[in-house]
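Subgroup meeting minutes
Present: P.N., E.W., G.H.
Scribe: E.W.

1. P.N. recapped why we're keeping a running log of single-chain structure predictions: easier to compare across weeks, and new members can see raw inputs and outputs side by side.
2. G.H. added today's entry (218 aa).
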Amino acid sequence: MTNKERRFAVGAVELRSADADAVPIAEGYAAVFGRRSLDLGGFTEVIDPAAFTKTLTEANVAAYWNHNDDYVLGDLKSGTLRLAVDDHGLRYDVDLPASWPGSYVAELLRRGDVRGSSFGFRTIRDKWEQDDNGVITRTLLEVALIDVSPVGRPAYPDTDAALRSLASLTKHDLSEVRAAAQARELRQLLTPAEAGAEEPTIDGEPALAEPSIKWIYA
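Output recorded in log:
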């Protein structure tokens, strides 16, 4: 699934069961709304609060250990995984199986060795914008959620699918977008002159709603 992306939330999972006889539950946030990501290669990213609204009514999401679909921890359809959206982000809790990898993950959480969560997704709609300081932000407006995962060591996320989205929106070749990202020059692709389009106006004045935003692709 070449368009699959992953994003991480550090310090967002813990074990909720002190009773030795109770089912151990991993709970936390797979995604946090409105928080700017680290530099993903020339751009940063934020998640819109409505990004998961539709997918949670349609998708059968699984919980995996470290995004490995051989290591199933729970499933939305079976009821062993539960997902909810609140003001903070996308929250999950999963009943960890008594056998491996559930017992392994429970022990890592109990010891504090695992503190990160992540979600896998495909982008349905996104928005790219550049402010007056040249800062480029991608906003995830709607995604198809695939999985949520406690993760051992959050890795630098693969942004190739994001760059494919930008290439499609700006009508540039993917190789050109990749090169611009590596050179931290994505802003050159997000100006009207480079994109081969004129900035929209109303009665001769810029038509953008927010003056701090130079150009928007959505």
